[in-house]
Amino acid sequence: MKARPDVRAMLLKRYPAGLFNDAEFEALARVLTD
């Protein structure tokens, strides 16, 4: 897994809190960082 904190922070700023659940967010982060 290559997820980076900056990607997570960017997504949290771009999308409203609660839009993704934790599992969806982790899966999305993996896709974006692979």
UniProtKB/TrEMBL annotation:
Domain of life: Bacteria
Name by which UniProt lists this protein: Uncharacterized protein
